[in-house]
Amino acid sequence: MQSLLIFILDNLRFLIDIGLVLALTYVMLVIIGERRTLWMVRGFIVLMLAAAVSQRLELKLLSFVLNNLVIGAAVAMAFILQSEFRRFLEQLGRGEIFQLFQPSRRNLPRSDSVIDEIVDAVKELSQNRIGALLILETSIPIDERDFSVPGVKLNAEVSKELLQTIFQTTTLLHDGAVLIRGSRIIAAGVILPLSERTASRQLGTRHRAAMGITERVENCICVVVSEETGSISLAERGALNRPLTSSKLKELLEARFSESGDREPVAPDLRSLARQISGKALSLFSRLFRQKKMGDSESSLRPNPKSKDPKNQSD
Fold first, then answer.
1. For the chain, which domains are there?
2. Contact call for residues 241 and 233 (beta carbons, < 8 A)
3. How far apart, in whole angstroms, are the C-alpha atoms of residue 252 and residue 74?
4. Basic and acidic residues bias: where (predicted)?
5. Which segments of the chain have a pLDDT < 50?
6. Is 144 within 8 Å of 181 (Cβ atoms)?
């Protein structure tokens, strides 16, 4: 019974250790507050868990390698996210413990401001008869394999000045499309597959490309500015809504374009991840507990060979 209690306490300390690490990581993610860093932190969590398990199983060489990887990854993350860590240390030094759990939203752009930037840029491009093609994700990210060419990565805030600059005929990226995800311009110069439908002769390559990508991918809409006429169109599920005024375009974008910004809090995703890890850890602990209990019961039922030996009994 005493060995069973020691076994339970030993594994309980292991689970508490993992839980505290997850709680610390949760605080760090709330402070960072950027979705683009989520996968990096998830990888760091996997490294820490692997190092803890290898140390628990006494795999000395693997534990040595993973521990050094964890230290190197921690130093790299502290360097990459130095401004966030500085804010964390400042709040910790001022004793603002509870404010650590409040994600910073000072850089979170409002959905209507993002739409205003897009509409203003499209309006200027239309008046100057500069061709443009914008892809707006409405829910989950688009797989790059749906593009003919994924384009050049930008990851910049949406602004009318940047959009107008990209589509100037003197730039190298003006021929492709601009991919917008939430409040960020993810890429420019994206080449899209053309629609195979029979289209009007008045429609150019940009319109056919907008129809093609929205036929293939449902979770996006496309805004097109004609270079010849300056007319504005909106493509959705392979159909074109044209011509549009800037006010009508804004109305349609407000109804269809949900701003899923790059700086959304990532804490809900971490809570889901923590629930999955804790569930698996508890199931593993229960299996180890059952195996330990069965092993103790089998050892108690197994006959003692010394008791059957008459020589030993006489001794």
1. 2-103+267-300 (no CATH), 111-256 (3.40.1700.10)
2. yes
3. 45
4. 306-315
5. 103-108, 260-271, 273, 307-315
6. no
